[in-house]
Automatic annotation (TrEMBL):
<dbReference type="InterPro" id="IPR050109">
    <property type="entry name" value="HTH-type_TetR-like_transc_reg"/>
</dbReference>
<keyword id="KW-0238">DNA-binding</keyword>
<dbReference type="GO" id="GO:0000976">
    <property type="term" value="F:transcription cis-regulatory region binding"/>
</dbReference>
<dbReference type="GO" id="GO:0045892">
    <property type="term" value="P:negative regulation of DNA-templated transcription"/>
</dbReference>
<dbReference type="InterPro" id="IPR013573">
    <property type="entry name" value="Tscrpt_reg_YcdC_C"/>
</dbReference>
<dbReference type="Pfam" id="PF00440">
    <property type="entry name" value="TetR_N"/>
</dbReference>
<dbReference type="InterPro" id="IPR009057">
    <property type="entry name" value="Homeodomain-like_sf"/>
</dbReference>
<dbReference type="GO" id="GO:0003700">
    <property type="term" value="F:DNA-binding transcription factor activity"/>
</dbReference>
<dbReference type="InterPro" id="IPR036271">
    <property type="entry name" value="Tet_transcr_reg_TetR-rel_C_sf"/>
</dbReference>
<dbReference type="InterPro" id="IPR001647">
    <property type="entry name" value="HTH_TetR"/>
</dbReference>
<protein>
    <submittedName>
        <fullName>TetR/AcrR family transcriptional regulator</fullName>
    </submittedName>
</protein>
<feature type="domain" description="HTH tetR-type">
    <location>
        <begin position="10"/>
        <end position="70"/>
    </location>
</feature>
<dbReference type="Pfam" id="PF08362">
    <property type="entry name" value="TetR_C_3"/>
</dbReference>
<feature type="DNA-binding region" description="H-T-H motif">
    <location>
        <begin position="33"/>
        <end position="52"/>
    </location>
</feature>
Length: 206
């Protein structure tokens, strides 16, 4: 019985977070209400307040959930040492989530563009040490002669900008693709192109 309750809780939270991500992306934080999210989630408003006391708390949960997904994408930095393997895996994972969770990326971008008013200091506490570890690994690759000299932070920013473009500017991507979303084949070509350009830029062959 306890496991059943845990599973119900997990499913409800997942449903609420998905709905909130969609509504925050479409309407913006300011005008979104808990009632809007409850309607999208097809749950009573009381259910939302059972799991999240306020809109602020739910908004932070959406952003933290997305950040954790992106951190999972970067586990290849810890699992592998070969820069080609690490960066190929990382770019593909990031591109994949730009396609599967474009609205989440837009919510994140909106928060960052405004100086992270709601995440505040908590963002620095979680993001800065994480990024520093990735930069340290890139720096070791340079020191070992595995890649061309590169500023580690700039390489990360380039990867983030290139991969998240497909989420944040999805409308523009579709517009320039005859008004249609990229097909699976076209998206795969994009993944390979982004990967190839970045790897060749640091002296590696895809």
């Amino acid at each position: 019985m306890a496991n059943h309750k845990i599973e119900i809780r997990r499913r409800n939270i997942e449903k609420i977070l998905q709905a909130a991500e969609q509504v925050f992306a479409e309407q913006g934080y300011g005008v979104t209400s808990m009632a809007d999210i409850a309607e999208r989630a097809q749950l009573p408003r009381s259910n939302l307040h059972y799991y999240f006391n306020t809109k602020d708390e739910l908004y932070r949960a959406v952003l933290q959930d997305l950040l954790e997904v992106w951190k999972q994408d970067a586990l290849c930095f810890e699992r592998f040492d070969d820069p080609r393997v690490v960066l190929t895996s990382y770019i593909r994972a990031k591109m994949g989530h730009s396609r599967s969770r474009p609205l989440g990326s837009k919510v994140w971008a909106e928060e960052i563009l405004h100086g992270a008013p709601l995440l505040g200091d908590s963002l620095g506490e979680s993001l800065v040490p994480w990024a520093q570890l990735k930069q340290a690994k890139i720096r070791r690759w340079v020191e070992q002669g595995l890649i061309l000299p590169v500023e580690p932070s700039a390489l990360l920013y380039m990867i983030w900008a290139s991969t998240q473009h497909y989420a944040d500017f999805g409308y523009q991507v579709a517009l320039l693709n005859d008004g249609e979303p990229l097909s699976d084949m076209a998206f795969e070509r994009s993944v390979q192109t982004v990967t190839g350009v970045i790897l060749r830029g640091i002296g590696l062959e895809p």
